[in-house]
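input
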Amino acid sequence: MMASYTTLLFDLDNTLLDFSKAEQTAITDVFRFFGLDDSEQAVALYSQINDDFWKAFERGDISAERIYTGRFERFFLDSGQIGDAVAVNDRYLRALGDYAFKMPGCDETLSALFDKGYRLSIVTNGVAVNQHRRVADAGLNRWIRQLFISEEIGSKKPDKLFFDRVFESIEEKDRSRVLLIGDSLTSDIQGGFNAGIDTCWLSANGCTGEPKPTYTVRSLDELLTFL
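output
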């Protein structure tokens, strides 16, 4: 028998908003501003380095502050270019906040779930000022009750403490009635496992992975087939 959920916790980046597109657009703008190589290869190199740093943060190996300059220091080292990591990072964070591309079906799915009476919140790691701005610019506040950001609540996904603090604020206290939806096995699905809540993995290519999610969908609108 399918669980009777009341509350849905959505990841933000590459779940509701297309972070990959925003990242590519913003970093290309920044590289051009500083006269750096803005080729597809350079952008792909930065993206991989950035992903590596965020995964290290999720594991607890580095602080959030280390991500911001460290990723560009590594990029300059690996690409053989010279630049000011602090200045590039500062401009990149400002540029990233300018883009809030929505994932396919985002508005329609959130609207339908909201109309069905689900309580919707966002749980995200990231830079608080950017996340607030992008959520607002995308118009997601029409449906989202609360926005939980690691930088503001003092813990990160996938840590249990992050979700304990979420449960201190949301109305639903029964964890069996809460579903976490996200694209990352290491951050979202592992986080749900740590928190003792059901999970739904947004896997566009239909891959399987560990830890095993409760559900797997290829697109947001597939949520409406069982919610």
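quick obs: The chain has a mean pLDDT of 95.
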